[in-house]
Amino acid sequence: MQIRSSKRKKKRPRLTDKQRYIITKEARAQAHQMFDDIWQKENTDYRDDLYRWLSKHMDIPYEKCHFSKFGPSKCKRAMNILKKGVKKRILPKSRVNHETTNL
Predict the structure, then answer these.
(1) Which residues make Cβ contacts (< 8 Å) with residue 64, sequence separation at least 6?
(2) Predicted model pTM
(3) Total Cβ atoms within 10 A of residue 55
(4) Domain residue limits at 71
């Protein structure tokens, strides 16, 4: 005889396409704002270097490393990597130097 639990797991309601779109759009905006805040403190040449650095640490090709191609989970991951980079001061220094330190 099986005993059934009186507590059933409540299923989360499925998100509508519009809700998923809004969540993704907000995640992209947050991540991109963090990225912009970092590179604009340096100079305009630094932006490309920062994208290369981020792509390396996210283990994705440079060509696919753009926030418009990220979903909410990749945006969160990118933000965590950028935060660690700022905290540990391991972001790229100049256009000439593409060397990075492991996180």
Answers:
(1) 55
(2) 0.73
(3) 17
(4) 20-88
Is residue 46 in a domain?
A: yes
Does some domain include residue 32? yes
| Greatest C-alpha distance within the chain | 71
CB–CB of 62/51 below 8 Å? Answer: yes
Contact between residue 82 and residue 38 where contact means Cβ atoms under 8 Å apart: yes
Task: Say if CB 46 and CB 95 are below 8 A apart.
Answer: yes
Residue 6 in any domain: the answer is no
User: pLDDT (tens digit, 9 = 90+) per residue, 8-57?
Assistant: 677 878 889 999 999 999 999 999 999 999 888 866 568 888 999 999 99
Considering its fold, how many domains does the chain have in total? 1
Nearest to 26 by CA among 87, 71, 63, 56: 71
For residues 89, 57, 99, 35, the Cα torsion angle rounded to the nearest 10 degrees is: -50
